[in-house]
């Protein structure tokens, strides 16, 4: 049985995108500059899978999880304004070179700084209180925000938010020390 996972590959090295492995966490050379530590986000016009109030609450909680341990603040952009981060649900090929595969494998993906796109697979069975066949929306959101901030997958620490897989029905919303160490190493100033 395949455990559902993040759509970001585990090994993401190229001549332009090197990453550093320290302890179990990894981070890239892409990061937000200090002038952008106050990030704004908005919800795009992709497929509607959960109610807007539910999605707002989930994202607000997930952003606050990272704000507590990093130099970042996050605020929803006013209607019609541009934003640093855009959050949307999509099905299949949605034009970003990383198509979704339908239920059960690739859950979501987010792009590294300063791209700011966070996409969920609309075909997954999402929940805010997951049963055994559902995926916890907040757990996945906290993970994907880690990518938006520049973290890669935690290689050997299954309890870390940045570990690439999460079992159906599991809630994993609290950062592990590995996640905290990774964000502190990346933004050490």
TrEMBL record:
A molecular function (GO) term: metalloendopeptidase activity
UniProt cross-references to InterPro entries, sorted A to Z: M10A_MMP, MetalloPept_cat_dom_sf, Pept_M10_metallopeptidase, Pept_M10A, Peptidase_Metallo
Record has Nucleotide-binding as a keyword: no
Pfam family name, one: Peptidase_M10
Cofactors that this protein relies on: Zn(2+); Ca(2+)
Residues involved in Ca(2+) 1 binding: 124
Residues that, per the record, bind Ca(2+) 2: 84
Annotated residues for binding of Zn(2+) 1: 94, 96, 109, 119
Any one of the GO BP annotations: extracellular matrix organization
The organism of origin for this protein: Populus alba x Populus x berolinensis
Domain of life according to the entry: Eukaryota
PANTHER family xref list: MATRIX METALLOPROTEINASE (PTHR10201), PEPTIDASE METALLOPEPTIDASE DOMAIN-CONTAINING PROTEIN (PTHR10201:SF278)
Annotated binding of Ca(2+) 3, by residue: 101-102, 121, 124
Residues involved in Zn(2+) 2 binding: 6, 143, 147, 153, 162
Peptidase metallopeptidase domain span: 28-189
Keywords: Calcium, Hydrolase, Metal-binding, Protease, Zinc
Protein name listed in UniProt: Metalloendoproteinase 2-MMP-like
One GO cellular component, as annotated: extracellular matrix
Cofactor note as given: Binds 2 Zn(2+) ions per subunit. Can bind about 5 Ca(2+) ions per subunit.
Residues at the catalytic site: 144
